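Quick question, first post here. What does this chain look like in 3D?
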Amino acid sequence: MYNFKHGNVLRIFLALILLGIFIFLFLQNIPGVGSILLLVALVLITAFSTYHYNIMEGLVISIGLAYTIIVVSVYAYWTSSVHLGYLKPLVIIFAAYLATNLYKYILSFIGDMNLKNKAASEASTGLFTQRYLELKLEAEFDKAHKRNTVLSLMFIEVDGGANEAAFLIKKYSRSYDFIARYDRECFCIVLPRVKEKQAMLYAKKLRKAAEKVSKIKLNIGIVNFPDTQIKSWQELLECAKLAMHKAKEDNAIHVYRNH
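> Answer (accepted):
Ran it through. Tokens below.
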């Protein structure tokens, strides 16, 4: 299985190498090709550092890079009398940050559109079908694996009216939560970038709402990646089912563990 810790170390190591190139070029004040390499290095540092994070986290990283540029510029000015050229490097950093996020979300949008062309939603409830769930879960698992991000999956079995539960789940969920019917009495909710604690709070809210609004009982199992040693989206789904069955036995929300 991919080693996430080593992946993070590699990213930091490469970013430091690129930053070292920048500092060398800046202090040496190399014109022409050196200036082009400087801008390329800045673009690579920014894109490489922000691609795996959401918009706000990427912005914080970009601001940190910009602050580093300013500090190095001041140091270079006082030690080597190098001309202070703040504007161009800072513009490059934030342009690369915006371009990276634009590229990332365009790919995500295209991927979602492709999925929607392959599957449909239920006419009665508006929830996505099991086929669409499988496609979405496969895509999100691959994305989480490649980008070292978290992914949670909730598997819900309903004791009571399934269609009534479907509308209740939609009502108490967020507009961007991916909710699909798994079979007649079961539902799945795919939660990209949602950690176990957040998924648990979400599950408690749904269960409490179901008990308060009607006599429906929701048996909810939760599984999180990469907290568990799961290697495929199929295994993620099966573990969520196991967690749901355990929740049904204990009459409580259950989180899947490897042990």
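The longest strand covers residues 151-159.
Residues 121-255 form a domain with the Alpha-Beta Plaits fold (CATH 3.30.70.270).
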